[in-house]
Design a protein that fits this description.
Chains: A alpha/beta, B alpha+beta, C mainly alpha
Order of helices and strands of chain C: HEEHHHHHHHH
Largest sheet of chain C: 2 strands, antiparallel
Strand order of the largest sheet of chain C: 1-2
Number of strands of chain C: 2
Helix content of chain C: 40-55%
Strand content of chain C: under 5%
CATH topology of the domain at 247-388 in chain A: Flavocytochrome C3, Chain A, domain 1
Shape of chain C: globular
CATH superfamily of the domain at 247-388 in chain A: Succinate dehydrogenase/fumarate reductase flavoprotein, catalytic domain
Strand content of chain A: 15-25%
Largest sheet of chain A: 5 strands, parallel
Oligomer: heterotrimer
Strand order of the largest sheet of chain A: 7-3-2-11-18
Amino acid sequence: MPELERHEFDVLVIGAGGAGLRAAIEAREHGVRTAVVCKSLFGKAHTVMAEGGIAAAMGNANASDDWRVHFRDTMRGGKFLNNWRMAELHAREAPDRVWELETYGALFDRTADGRISQRNFGGHEYPRLAHVGDRTGLELIRSLQQKVVSLQQEDFARTGDHESALRVFAECTVTDLLLDGDRIAGAFGYWRESGRFVLFTAPAVILATGGIGKSFKVTSNSWEYTGDGHALALRAGASLINMEFVQFHPTGMVWPPSVKGILVTESVRGDGGVLRNSEGSRFMFGYVPSVFKDKYADDEAEADRWYADPENNRRPPELLPRDEVARAINSEVKAGRGSEHGGVFLDVSTRLPAEEIERRLPSMHHQFKELADVDITAEPMEVGPTCHYVMGGVEVDPDTAASSVPGLFAAGEVSGGMHGSNRLGGNSLSDLLVFGRRAGAGAAEYVRTLTTRPVPPEQALAAAEHTALVPFSGASGENPYTLHVELQQAMNDLVGIIRTAGEMERALERLAELRRRAEAVTVEGHRQFNPGWHLALDLRNMLLVSECVARAALLRTESRGGHTRDDHPRMDPDWRRTLLVCRATADGVTVTEQPQVPIRDDLLALFEHTELQKYLTGDELTGRSGTGS
Amino acid sequence: MGYQGRFRVWRGDADGGELRDFTVEVNEGEVVLDVVHRIQATQAPDLAVRWNCKAGKCGSCSAEINGRPRLLCMTRMSVFTESETVTVTPMRAFPVIRDLVTDVSFNYEKAREVPSFSPPEDLAPGDYRMSQVDVARSQEFRKCIECFLCQDTCHVVRDHEENKASFAGPRFLMRVAELEMHPLDTADRVDAAQSAHGLGMCNITKCCTEVCPEHIKITDNALIPMKERVADRRYDPVVWLGDKIFRRR
Amino acid sequence: MTAGQDARGRAEIGARTLRTDRWWLQSALTAAALGAFVVYATFRAFANTAYYSAPYVSPFYSPCLAANCLPGSGELHLVGQWWTLSPALLILVFPLGFRMTCYYYRKAYYRAFWASPPACAVAEPHARYSGETRFPLILNNAHRYFFYAGLVFNVILTYDAVIAFRDADGEWGHAGLGTLVLLANAALLWLYSLSCHSCRHVVGGRLKHFSRHPLRYRAWTWVSKLNGHHMRWAWLSLFSVAFADLYVSLVASGTITDPRFF
C-alpha cells in the first residue's frame, strides 16, 4: 500500500474527550511517545456538553463529606451492581483530580473563603459538584486541552518540535484495531478531510471514545457517539459488560422537534427546579421507591425547607437518581398527564429570581431563549427523557484500566463497571479524570515492560482498507442516512426506557435485517470529507453495539437502574451477583453470564445492615451480622 | 407549518467552487443546520459540513449565513421569511477544505504561541484560594467555545492574509487577557501582547464582539483592557516612572 | 479587489460581501452625524462671535483664555493681545483629542470614514493594514491623558452651569432654559468621561486582585456599568455640546430670548 501514511507511537489514545486527554497527559508525563486521535476538531469532544459539574468529595460546602460518603452514594445510585473497586478508586481520587485541573488553569466557581464551590445534585448526599456555572464540561475540556498545549510547549523548548512527545490527530477516524497474535499492534483509520488511510503502529491503545447514544433517536449525544470504542474492543476480542444499562436522562428538551433530546442540566433541579405534570401537581412525591424512602421528603413543605436547611429536612424527590426520575416522567406522560409536546414541566422561575437564574444557569437560559423561545426565568421548560449515557462498556481492570486484550485499555464512558446499573450525575466527569489518568499510567507501564514490540501484519492492513472501501462499491442503493434513521427508531421504540421480552426479540430481528442491508450500503462521491461514507462506516459499529444492548437486555429478567423490564418490574438480589458479558462472534455477538466479584468487607461495612438487605442476597449477608446496626 | 425553502450553498474546494441552489423542506422550529442536514440526507449526500453538539456548545458548525459569520446550529429558520433565499458559505478567512468545511489550523497554531498558565511554583494542588470577584473576569473569557467566528470576521486577517503571521486574532488576544487577569498567573504577558500577539493591529471595530455566539464582550472586557495595560507599560511616562520608583508590577 | 477574502486557498466566492441587510446604513449614519458635527464645530470655532450672553458661555469657548475674549466670558487671560484668532482654537484640541482617541469614536471613524472595515464581514478597500501600530494612529494610546484633560474641562463646564444660576448681573437665584441646557450638557459630559475605557482601567481595571481593593472594585463595578453604554454617552454628549453652543449663540445673537423660570 504505497499511499498509506504511517506513524509510530508508544501509546495511542483514541478519543480526545476528558478521559482521552487526561490519559494522554499522563502517558506523556510518564515519558512515552503518545498520540491522540479524534473524530472532531481538538477541543470539540462531547465532554463539552457536560453541564452540572464534577463530583468530588472535597468537603468544601459541607465538611462532613468524604470519599466514603461519595462511595456509598455511587453504589446506591448504581444499585450495588458497580465494580466496587472502581467506585472506591473513583471516590478516593476524584478530589485530587479536580485540584489538579486548577493547576492546568481551570477556574471553578468559588466559595466565600476562596475554595472551589460545590453544588447539590441527584443522588449525592452533600453538595459535591465542582462547577463553573452550567458549563463545567467546557471548562474541563479546555483545561485539559490547554495542558496538552503547555506540554507541547515544553517539548518544543526541549526538542524544537511541538509534537515530539505528544501529538494530536484531529478529524481522523479509527476503523479497526490491529493485532499481532493476541496483542495490540496498532490501529488503522482515515483522515476525514482527505479520506486517505493512516496506520498507527503502537503497542498500547487506550480507548476513550465515549458512548453509543447516536443509536437512539432521542438523545443528548452528539454525532460522534456511535459506539466506536465498544465495537473496536469487541472486534479485537475484548469483552463488554453491563451493556443492558442505558441511562435516559430525565430532562431533555422536547420542543421544537429539531432540538428534541438536547440536555437540560440536572443543575436546574439541584438549584431548586421542580417537576410538575399538566395538572400542576409535583408528581415526584408519588415515585419515591422504597429503598430511598428514608432519604427523600414526603411532602412539598419539607422538600421546600430542605433548600435552606438540609440538615433537618429530607431532600426533594426531584433529586432522586436519574433512572427514577426518568421513569416517573415517562409514566406521567403515558398516563395522559404530559405537556402539549409530550413532556412534563420543569420550573425554576418560581424558586429563584431572574438574575440568579441567569448567573447560575447561563447556558440553559441561552439555550431555551435561542432554540425554543422560552424564557426560563419567567416560565417553565418542557422536558422529557433522553438517551444520555451507557453504563456498559469494556471490561477493565480497575487499577490499570487494562482490558482482557494485552495492550488494550479503556477509560471513561467506553469502559464498564464503575457506575453499575445507573450513573449519578457528576460522576462522569470525575470518572473521566480518575480512570483517564489510570489508563495513561497503565498503558505507559505496559509499554515499559514489553520485551518485543508487536508489529501489525500487512494482511490485516489490506483487510482493514478493504472493509473501509466497501461502501463505495455497494450497488443496492441503500442510503446510510435512511438506515441510521431506521436503527434509531428501532432502538428508541423497542430497547428504550421501558422494555419487554417481546419488544426486544422484535428489536433483534430488526437489527439483523438492518445489518444485512448495511452490508450493501452505497455511498456517492469521493473520499474527501464525505459524510455519507463516514456514516456508513460508523453504522457498522452502531449495529454491533446495539445488538449487545438488545441481547443483554433480553437476558436480564429484572429491573435495575438503567434497565427497566415491564415484564419483570422487580429488582432481584440474585441478579446483582451476575454480570452479562458480550463478546463478538463471526456473525454477531454472544452474551454470557459471569459472577460478580464480592464486595470487599471493609467497604461493605460502610453501609448499614438494613440497607444491604435491600440489595444483597441472604447468602451474602450471613456471617456479616456484626457490622452495622 | 412546513414550507419549501430556497437555499444557496457553496460547494467546492480550494481549486474553485460555486453557489448551488437547493429547494428543501423547512419545518417549524428548525435551525439552518437541520436544513443543511436535510439537503445532505436527501439531495447531496456528500455535502461536507462540520458539526458536533448541535446545541451551541462546541463551536464546530461555524459558517456564514447571508454573509454573516454564524453558528449553523444556533441560527433559527424563523429569522428568515419564507420567500427569502438563504445563502450558506464557508468561513472566508480560512482556507477551504470542501463545501462548508474550512481549515482552521491557523487557530491551533496561534493557541500554541500563547505561553501557558504559570501558577506560583510553591503552590500545591488543593491549596489554590481565589475569590469569586477575582476569577469572574477570566471566567467570562473561558465561556469561549472556540468557534473561531471572531477570528473569521476580524478584518485584520480576513482582509489581509499577510497579517496572519503577526496577529493572534481576537480569540487568542482574549486568551492572553484571560491569563493576565487570572489571579494566580505569575507570568508577565503585557509586552508580548503588543509585540508577539499583535494587539496593536486591533482597531477595536468590535466585529468580534458582534459575532460572538456566547455574547462575550471581547472588545470591551478583553482587548481594550489589554490595550490599556500596554499603554501603562509602553505609552504612559507617568506610570512608567511610578513603576520605576515604587518597583511595583 | 483585496488579497484578503479571495486569498489563495480560500473559498472562491468573489462577492465583496454576501450580506443582504443594509450593512452600509450604520456607517452612513455615523459618517453623516460626525460630519455634520465637524462642519458645525469648525464653523463655530472660527466664528469668534455670539458665544457669550451673560450668564451663559458656550462650551466651545470655555474656558476663554485669551485677552480678546468677550468681556465677562472668562477672567483668566493666560494668552495675551497677540492672539487675534478665535479663543476657541486655544482649547478645542483637548475635548477634540479626547473624542478622537476615544475607544468608541475610534470604532466609529475607522468604520465610517476609513472603511476599515465598512461593516463586519464586508471587505475593506485597502491593500495594506497596520492597525494602530504606527504613527499617527499609535498616538491613540495617549487616550488617558486626554481623559485627564477632559476631567478638567468637565469641572470648568460644570462651574459654567453653576454660575448660570446667577442672572446677567451676577445675582444668585436665576434659572433660565439656558441654565438647564448647560446643566444637562455638563451632566452628559460627566457620564461620557466617567464611562470611558481609560477611566475604567484607572479606577480598578488594572488591578489583578479586586478582592484586595474593595473600594476600587466598587468603583470599577460602577464605571463598568456606565461603560456598557459608552456609545450612548458619546453621542448624547456630542449632541448636547453642539446644542449648548447653538443655544448660547442664538441667545447671544438675539435670535431668541432665553425663557426664564425664576
